[in-house]
Amino acid sequence: MTSIRHFLHTAARALLSGLLGGLVLAAGHAHAQQPVRGITKDEILIGSLQDLSGPAAGPGKEIRNGMQMRLDEANAQGGIHGRKLRLVIEDHGYDPKRAVLGAQKLIDRDQVFMMVGQFGSATMLATLPLLERAGMVNFFPLSSARQAFEPASPLKYAFHPADYDQIRHALPGLMQARGLKRICAIYQDDELGLEITRGAEAALQAQGLQWTEKMGFKRGSTDFSSQVARAKAADCDGVVLATVVRETVGVMTEARKLGFKPVFVGTSSAYSSAIPRLGGEAVEGLYATMLVEEPYLDSPNGPLREWAARYKARFSDDPTVFSGYGYFILDSFVRGVQAAGPALTPASFGQAMDGLRIPPSLFGTPEMRFGPQRRLGNDVARISQIQGGRWVLLNN
Prior knowledge:
Layout: H1 2-33, E1 43-50, H2 57-76, E2 84-91, H3 96-109, E3 115-116, H4 121-134, E4 138-139, E5 156-157, H5 163-178, E6 183-188, H6 191-206, E7 213-217, H7 225-233, E8 238-242, H8 245-257, E9 263-266, H9 274-279, E10 287-290, H10 302-315, H11 321-340, H12 346-354, E11 357-358, E12 368-369, E13 382-387, E14 390-393
Parallel strand pairs: 1-2, 3-4, 4-5, 6-7, 6-8, 8-9, 9-10
Antiparallel strand pairs: 10-13, 11-12, 13-14
Helix pairs in contact: 2-11, 3-4, 5-6, 7-8, 11-12
């Protein structure tokens, strides 16, 4: 009887173990087959938010072109691990409220895998809570806000040094080189402008100085006469421009009308070939920090010159720094997806990125690496000046 009971007990345990094992395998199989948002066996769907109709519509369209150019190249080579890339762009018109609506559409309706290269600091900051709630990676936003990489999060990958740090590091050297003592600021009254002025203020305080005068303007403004008049009345010999393209031209054109000739300095937000093209003589001498080199068709940088020619042939238009940004951002995304392998998920992408070396690019960006506490791949900016109607790199 004892041997019979032992046999029955052993058989029952084996049967139960088999059933449980089967359930575990079934659950594992179901988990493996669980769909990943934006990923099918044939496609990777990514989203972006750009200004295609507002005050930064020119840069927005150039970013889009650069991204599309690199995407098409990847697809022409068969895609990535058998999947083609598809990009959906929503136009936020440089308006944070529209950016939130666009982000909601990309997340809820389009079900994109990732937010890639979204443009603008104020607009990006407005969308961050939505991305965080959705557990969606904000990859390489074209923003110089510190929140793009701080606090550290697996949902953040940034490549662009903060405006705060760009101006904080650049201003003291420029003041010394040009003998500047009375520093003023003309700033866009939003997060972009405030970050630049905070960085400049930190640089001044480190030297025991303070602002001589500081004037703000609302985003989208076109009249800067009162701000420039106040700066001139304060006898400022240096003016920090916390501005983007159109506003930089507007301020410096007004200064020229009034015969006001301080040293003007901006960050990468004011680095664009559109500025000398639109501003002409009025913007000569402007300094700006930068990361991606302006891709002139006659650039002495051979690989960059060849890339610019290909862009021109594709879009029948000269490339700009924003075209370069778009191409570089999408190229970095492609590298991450390639490294993640065929079983692409947000987690596998993150693991790949945190072990990836993004090499120096033809646009002049340095090597970039990431890690759990390093969400900004690069903290170095260079400085250029407008000389003879084009940007000239002053340091390497």
